[in-house]
Design a protein that fits this description.
The chain is an alpha/beta fold. The chain has helices at about 5-15, 25-35, 50, 55-60, 75-85, 115-120, 140-155, 160-165, and strands at about 20, 40-45, 65, 90-95, 100, 105-110, 125-130, 135, 180-185, 195-200. It binds iron/sulfur cluster (SF4).
Length: about 200
């Protein structure tokens, strides 16, 4: 296993956050099925990583109550209901914009519906992250999120922001701006409430 992954996993554990390793997508799904009890209520955050690894598909087919925010045709009121239900889910599963080698999670969010349940509510939070999102420290985590992840996300979401054309962030004041909540999770009171699975692959952005 890569030294950077080893160091990050140890640092997570020192922060009361579970650190787990998956060499590939199959091992990732195996770990997820171990962590989530049959019949559980599952909420999720928007995540290219979860899409690429087949986690969303798995959650839809397995024996869980999956609060699927990606269902076609949902109104904004129906989405809001799902976001509120996420707080009382048994498990919330999500990606992250960056993870530092000091065992911290950094995210930028548009309306807070992804970062809020990471902080409080669900009994268990599972974070899936590819090795490409490991950063040396918070400064590098913020840089990668603002300059790499956010412009690509704005493009994916068809936003009319300057970064979509430029390919980098200019800290816009655009009405479509997706960078509103800057959240650093550095430690947990409840040991292993957050479980991070680092996948030894390049995933998401
Ligand atoms: S602040 Fe604006 S320009 Fe910068 S990444 Fe976010 S949406 Fe794009």
């Amino acid at each position: 296993m890569d030294e950077r992954i080893k160091k990050t996993m140890k640092a997570l554990r020192d922060n009361n956050i579970g650190g787990y390793y998956a060499e590939d997508k199959n091992k990732l799904l195996e770990l997820i099925s171990e962590f989530i009890k049959v019949g559980s209520i599952i909420g999720s955050g928007d995540s290219v990583t979860l899409e690429q690894t087949g986690v969303f598909e798995y959650l839809r087919k397995a024996d869980y109550v999956f609060l699927d925010k990606h269902k076609k045709g949902l109104s904004s009121e129906e989405k809001r209901e799902i976001y509120l239900k996420n707080f009382s889910a048994d498990t919330f599963i999500t990606g992250t914009n960056a993870i530092t080698m000091n065992g911290e999670l950094f995210n930028i969010d548009g309306n807070g519906s992804r970062v809020a349940p990471m902080i409080y509510g669900p009994k268990q939070v599972i974070v899936v992250v590819g090795k490409n999102k490991i950063t040396k420290d918070v400064k590098e985590a913020i840089y990668r999120t603002r300059q790499i992840a956010a412009p690509l996300d704005a493009k994916r979401l068809h936003k009319n922001t300057p970064c979509v054309k430029l390919g980098y962030c200019i800290d816009c004041k655009n009405l479509d701006r997706i960078c509103n909540d800057f959240v650093l999770i550095s430690r947990q009171f409840i040991k292993n409430r957050i479980k991070v699975i680092i996948v030894d692959e390049v995933l998401g952005y």
